[in-house]
Amino acid sequence: YLANLSVLSGEQTKDYLVEAYFDNEILKICRSNQELKLNVRIGETLSLLPFNGNAQGVNTTGLKWNLQDHTLNTNTALGISNIFSSEIATIKITEGVLLVLLQTNFD
Prior knowledge:
This protein is mostly beta strands. Helices cover 7% and strands 41% of the residues. The chain contains 1 helix and 9 strands; from the N terminus they run H-E-E-E-E-E-E-E-E-E. The chain has one helix at 2-8; strands spanning 19-21, 25-31, 36-39, 45-50, 55-61, 70-72, 82-83, 88-92, 97-103. A 5-stranded antiparallel sheet has the order 1-2-9-4-7, with no helix packed on it. It has a 4-stranded antiparallel sheet with strand order 3-8-5-6, with no helix packed on it. The chain is globular.
């Protein structure tokens, strides 16, 4: 699983919008050159996980606990289990790689 994450978030995929679908989760890769705009259901959960180092300049909208120009470190739980407060949410970073894990029911 970690090897797959490393490939999906690696240099060879930097120009693509990367998504992976699992049973009840969607994984999206957020990079400094790609703002994510998500159409979601209010109340669903997401987690923001820095990968291969810190994610800097993290800005979010549409979440219960939004971040503004924040640095997410690999050794903190700050980005875990946030909740969508709007049907449209955005995630943008200025540096690094951020794994965005959406928990959904796929109805």
